[in-house]
C-alpha cells in the first residue's frame, strides 16, 4: 500500500515510521523545509525511545521518505493521513486551519480513490468539514475522483509510542463506506496479530471516542488527586487506598496514581476542547469542569508544602528539581506542572537548580536563564535547601541518600510522585513530604 502522512509532528512521525516498519511505502510530508531536511539526515524533531533507529532503518531500506512536496506524495496514494497540529485557540477550541488546508491540498492533487484519515485529535464534526473542503477543491478542477473520509484516533502514549502503535490495545476507525472499511482493515492487519480488535464505527463516534478516552483518564487522575488531598486531612495513606481500590477490576490499577497534576499535549487540550464542544452545543460537562479545576490546584500542592515547611518564606533559598518534562521518557514540556512550580518558586524569591535527563534543551526555550540547568542529578543538589521530585524518571528512584545529605545544605525532600518509602528517607535523617500521606508533623494538606 502507498501511504501519505501529512504532518511530521509526534503523531505523524510515529504513524508513518511504524507503517513503513511493516513494509508499506510511506511518504511523510511537512511544509517545514528545515524539518524535512533534518529528517532526511535522520535528525528528529522530537525525542521518543526507539524512533530514531526505526526512522534510519526504514529510510535506508527505501520504504520511508520525507518530502515537502504534497502534490507528488498524494498522487497514487491509497491512504492519506492528516496528522497536523490542532492548537487550542484563545477560547480552548481546537483550531482546524491546518487540518482543512491539508484537506484542500488533497482535493487539489488526488488522482485516484483515496481514503483520507484524520489522525489529529479533532472535534466531533471535523470529518464533515474535511469532506466538504476536498469536494470543493475537486469541483474547482471538474474532477469526479472518489474518496472517503475516515477518523482514526490515536491512543499513543509519549515514551511508549512505538510499542503502542505496533501492539495496540485496540484500533478505532470511523468509516462511511464498506470500501473505506476494507482499506483500513488491510492497512492495520499487520498490527493486529496479537488478537486485539479493530473497532469500526461511524465517524462522529470515532471522533468522540478519542475525547471520551482521554477525558476518562484525566478524570481518574483528578479524582485520585482529590482523594489524596482528603487522605492527608483525614490521616489516611493514599498509596494504601490506591492499592485497595485498584484491585477491584471494575476500577483497575492503572491511571490512579496521585501526583502534581496531569500535563502533556493531550489531556489538558482534550478536556478543554470537550467542555467547549459541549457548551457550544448547549450542554455543560460538569464533571470535566471539576477535573480541570482539580488539576489546576494540584499543580500548586507541592509548592504549598514547600511554603508550609519553610514558614512561608523561601526568599534566597535554593531548590533542586529532579525532572522537568510532564512525564518520564519524553522531552515534552507542554503543560508540564514543573513550569507552574518553577514560576511560583521564582516569584517567591527562591533559586532553582534543575536536572532532567532529556528535557533540558526543550525547557530552556521557555525558562531561558531564569534557573540553573544542572550537569547531572547530583550537580542539581549542590547547596540546595530541599529537593523536589517533579518527574518520576527511573534514575531518580534509588538515590544514594548519603551523597544527597552531603551535597545539600538542608535535608528535605518533597516528592511529587510518591516514588520513595517515607520510612527509608526519614531514617536517613531527611524530612519527607509526598502526595496524599501525612508524613511530617507540620505537614498540612493543601486544597
Ligand atoms: C495520553 C494518553 O494516555 C494517550 O492514550 C493519548 O493518545 C495521549 O494522551 P500522554 O499524554 O503521552 O498520553 O501521557 P500519559 O502517560 O497518559 O500521562 C498523562 C499525564 O497524566 C502525565 O502528566 C502523567 O504524569 C499523569 N498521570 C498519569 C498521573 O498523574 N497519574 C497517573 O496515574 C497516570
Spans of at least 5 consecutive residues with low confidence: 441-447
Structural class: alpha/beta
Shape: elongated
Q: How many separate domains make up the residues?
A: 2
List SSEs in N-to-C order.
EHEHHEHEHEHEHEHEHHHHEHEHEEHEHE
What hetero molecules are bound to the protein chains?
uridine-5'-diphosphate-xylopyranose
Any descriptors?
447 residues, alpha/beta, six-stranded parallel beta sheet, 14 strands, elongated, disordered C terminus, binds uridine-5'-diphosphate-xylopyranose, NAD binding, UDP-glucose 6-dehydrogenase, EC 1.1.1.22, UDP-Glc/GDP-Man_DH_C_sf
Structure explained in plain terms:
There is one protein chain. The chain has two domains: 2-201, NAD(P)-binding Rossmann-like Domain (Rossmann fold, 3-Layer(aba) Sandwich); 243-433, Rossmann fold (3-Layer(aba) Sandwich). The radius of gyration is 24 Å and the shape is elongated. The chain has 447 residues and is an alpha/beta fold. The chain is built from 16 helices and 14 strands. The longest helix has 32 residues, at 203-234. The protein has helices at 10-21, 33-40, 51-60, 70-74, 97-109, 126-140, 161-166, 178-188, 203-234, 238-246, 267-280, 286-309, 337-347, 360-367, 401-407, 422-427, and strands at residues 2-6, 25-29, 64-67, 79-82, 114-118, 147-151, 171-174, 198-201, 318-322, 351-355, 372-373, 386-389, 412-415, 431-433. Helix 5 (97-109) runs parallel beside helix 6 and helix 9 (203-234) packs across helix 11. Bound molecules: uridine-5'-diphosphate-xylopyranose. Uridine-5'-diphosphate-xylopyranose binds next to helix 9.
Amino acid at each position: 500500500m502507498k501511504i501519505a502522512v501529512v504532518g511530521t509532528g509526534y503523531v505523524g512521525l510515529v504513524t508513518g515510521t511504524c507503517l513503513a516498519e511493516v513494509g508499506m511505502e510511506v511518504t511523510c510530508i511537512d511544509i517545514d523545509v528545515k524539518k524535512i531536511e533534518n529528517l532526511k539526515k535522520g535528525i528528529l524533531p522530537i525525542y521518543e525511545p526507539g524512533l530514531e533507529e526505526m526512522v534510519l532503518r526504514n529510510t535506508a531500506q527505501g520504504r520511508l521518505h520525507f518530502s515537502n512536496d504534497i502534490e507528488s506524495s498524494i498522487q497514487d496514494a491509497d491512504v492519506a493521513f492528516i496528522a497536523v497540529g490542532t492548537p487550542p485557540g484563545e477560547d480552548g477550541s481546537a483550531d482546524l486551519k491546518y487540518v482543512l488546508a491539508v484537506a484542500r491540498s488533497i482535493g487539489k492533487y488526488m488522482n485516484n480513490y483515496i481514503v483520507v484519515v484524520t489522525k489529529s485529535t479533532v472535534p466531533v464534526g471535523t470529518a464533515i468539514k474535511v469532506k466538504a473542503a476536498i469536494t470543493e477543491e475537486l469541483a474547482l478542477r471538474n474532477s469526479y475522483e472518489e474518496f472517503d473520509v475516515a477518523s482514526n484516533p490515536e491512543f499513543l502514549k509519549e515514551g511508549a509510542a512505538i510499542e503502542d502503535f505496533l501492539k495496540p490495545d485496540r484500533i478505532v476507525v470511523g468509516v462511511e463506506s464498506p470500501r473505506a472499511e476494507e482499506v483500513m482493515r488491510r492497512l492495520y492487519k499487520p498490527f493486529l496479530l496479537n488478537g486485539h480488535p479493530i473497532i469500526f464505527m461511524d465517524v462522529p463516534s470515532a471522533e468522540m471516542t478519542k475525547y471520551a478516552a482521554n477525558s476518562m483518564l484525566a478524570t481518574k487522575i483528578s479524582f485520585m488527586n482529590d482523594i489524596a488531598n482528603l487522605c492527608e486531612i483525614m490521616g489516611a495513606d493514599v498509596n494504601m487506598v490506591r492499592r485497595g481500590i485498584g484491585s477491584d477490576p471494575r476500577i483497575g490499577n492503572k491511571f490512579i496514581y496521585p501526583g502534581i497534576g496531569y500535563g502533556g499535549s493531550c489531556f489538558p487540550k482534550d478536556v478543554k476542547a470537550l467542555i467547549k464542544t459541549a457548551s457550544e452545543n448547549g450542554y455543560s460537562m460538569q464533571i470535566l469542569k471539576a477535573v480541570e479545576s482539580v488539576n489546576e490546584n494540584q499543580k500548586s500542592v507541592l509548592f504549598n508544602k514547600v511554603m508550609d515547611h519553610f514558614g512561608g518564606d523561601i526568599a534566597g533559598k535554593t531548590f533542586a528539581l529532579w525532572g522537568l518534562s510532564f512525564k518520564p521518557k519524553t522531552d515534552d514540556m507542554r503543560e508540564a506542572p514543573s513550569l507552574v512550580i518553577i514560576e511560583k518558586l521564582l516569584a517567591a524569591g527562591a533559586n532553582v537548580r534543575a536536572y532532567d535527563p532529556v528535557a533540558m534543551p526543550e525547557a530552556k526555550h521557555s525558562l531561558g536563564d531564569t534557573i540553573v540547568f544542572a550537569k547531572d542529578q547530583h550537580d542539581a543538589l549542590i547547596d540546595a535547601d530541599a529537593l523536589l521530585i517533579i518527574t518520576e524518571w527511573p534514575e531518580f528512584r534509588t538515590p544514594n541518600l548519603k551523597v544527597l545529605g552531603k551535597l545539600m545544605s538542608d535535608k528535605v525532600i518533597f516528592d511529587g510522585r510518591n516514588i520513595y518509602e517515607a520510612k527509608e528517607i526519614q531514617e536517613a535523617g531527611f524530612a519527607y513530604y509526598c502526595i496524599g500521606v501525612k508524613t511530617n508533623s507540620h505537614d498540612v494538606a493543601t486544597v
